[in-house]
Design brief:
InterPro entries: Bact_Transport_Assoc (IPR052529), DUF418 (IPR007349). This is DUF418 domain-containing protein. Keywords: Membrane, Transmembrane, Transmembrane helix. This protein is mostly helical. The chain has one domain. The chain is built from 20 helices and no strands. It is globular. The two termini are 27 Å apart. The relative contact order is 0.17.
Length: 408
């Protein structure tokens, strides 16, 4: 019998330990990137020359994120969203329920959560985007694994071609103000205005957010939608193939890790060298920081899955705490937004723009510790995380039982 990375319970109602574990790593890992949006002006997310420092420890912080995490943690989340979506659909069908009704109720309420999060808390919301792409992905759930992978790769190719329009526009001198705001170094007056808004009161921040980002999930659907749909398809294929279930032999996970990272890691190091050598020029950022990473990301995300499952120790203290954080990923994701906006925005401590890039990461470490500390004890007493319970209750049209052992 082949040795599996993690035990998989064949019960149709049992949670998959592998999915919870990977999701736990993803919800922690995505904060490595989101913290930049919480604490620094928008342009600094991609280009450290815009704000936050680009020498010494700040450059090292950028390089580690760029080579290992940027886009990969979001992609890992998207893989898991596709896999979990398929799992919910299959279990609804096994219970004799309407899979479409179950799925679209969940996506509708996720869309409501997403827009509430976007409008009231933070402009970096991803939930509304996932809800809309999840509605589209439902129609692809019955594709064979090979066709899921093929369609996903076609969408990645289309995204690469779409993104190539940015460096071409830079070369031709088109749309430069908008591109500079995204990945270049905006004028100092623009940066100062953004900092002043975020250090101000809630009313001013809310107004600016609604004006600039109120309908951004709809407007950006065509930019990021194909890539996100591809990742969800890869996640569904990963579930069907047994990869995300932890059912592959360890030797197969090792081979995939060596191949995926053996190709992509040197490529990412080369892209980082290009960007640093060009001193984060607009052209280098458009090519090496924006367009060329697109076809590399899926393989590196698959490598992350393999690495996580290979390092997992079933029953180990860190593994169980990561899995608990993953079971409460929805709550932990929203909680980090509430905490970080309270730390960085003017209606809280007002740290926005005051810390350099590397100085943001002690905040990340503290939030990681909090997620790992509180998730497991909570699930020992309650069946769901608070926001998971609310989402489930709304989607099912009735209050779900909360107290008691964690639900499968």
């Amino acid at each position: 019998m082949p040795e599996a990375a993690l035990p998989a319970d064949p019960s149709p109602s049992a949670r998959l330990a592998s999915l919870d574990l990977i999701r736990g790593v993803a919800v922690l890992g995505i904060l490595l990137l989101n913290i930049l949006s919480f604490g620094l002006p928008q342009a600094a997310y991609l280009n450290p020359r815009a704000w936050g420092g680009w020498h010494g420890a700040d450059l090292a912080a950028w390089a580690v994120n760029f080579v290992l995490f940027d886009g990969r943690m979001r992609g890992l989340f998207s893989f898991l969203f596709g896999a979990s979506m398929l799992l919910v659909i299959e279990r609804a069908e096994a219970r004799g329920e309407s899979a479409a009704a179950v799925h679209y109720r969940r996506m509708f309420w996720l869309l409501v959560f997403g827009f509430a999060h976007l409008w009231l808390v933070w402009e970096g919301d991803i939930l509304a985007h996932y809800a809309m792409i999840g509605m589209l992905a439902f129609g692809l759930r019955d594709l064979p694994v090979e066709r899921m992978l093929g369609l996903g790769l076609a969408l990645i190719a289309a995204t690469t071609l779409l993104f190539a329009g940015f460096p071409i526009a830079v070369q031709e001198g088109r749309d430069l103000p908008a591109i500079i705001q995204l990945m270049g170094v905006p004028p100092a007056t623009d940066i100062a205005r953004e900092i002043a808004i975020h250090r101000g009161g809630y009313g001013g921040i809310l107004q600016a957010r609604l004006v600039a980002h109120g309908l951004s999930p709809l407007m950006l659907l065509w930019v990021y939608g194909p890539e996100t749909l591809a990742y969800m398809l890869f996640g569904m294929a990963g579930l069907r193939s047994g990869m995300l279930r932890g059912e592959w032999p360890r030797a197969r996970y090792r081979r995939w890790l060596l191949v995926c990272w053996g190709v992509t890691l040197p490529a990412w190091l080369a892209l980082a060298g290009w960007i640093v050598g060009a001193q984060f020029s607009l052209s280098a950022m458009a090519w090496a920081g924006w367009t060329l990473p697109v076809p590399l990301r899926p393989a590196m995300i698959a490598g992350w899955v393999c690495l996580i499952l290979l390092l997992a120790r079933p029953g180990g203290a860190l593994t169980t705490r990561l899995a608990a954080a993953g079971r409460m990923a929805f709550t932990n994701y929203l909680a980090t937004s509430l905490i970080c906006t309270a730390l960085f925005y003017g209606y809280g401590l007002g740290w926005f723009g005051q810390l350099s890039r590397w100085q943001l990461y002690p905040v990340v470490a503290a939030l990681w510790a909090a997620m790992l500390f509180w998730s497991k004890p909570w699930l020992a007493r309650f069946r769901f995380g608070p926001f998971e319970w609310l989402w489930r209750s709304l989607a099912r049209g009735s209050l779900q039982k909360l107290r008691g052992p964690a639900s499968v």
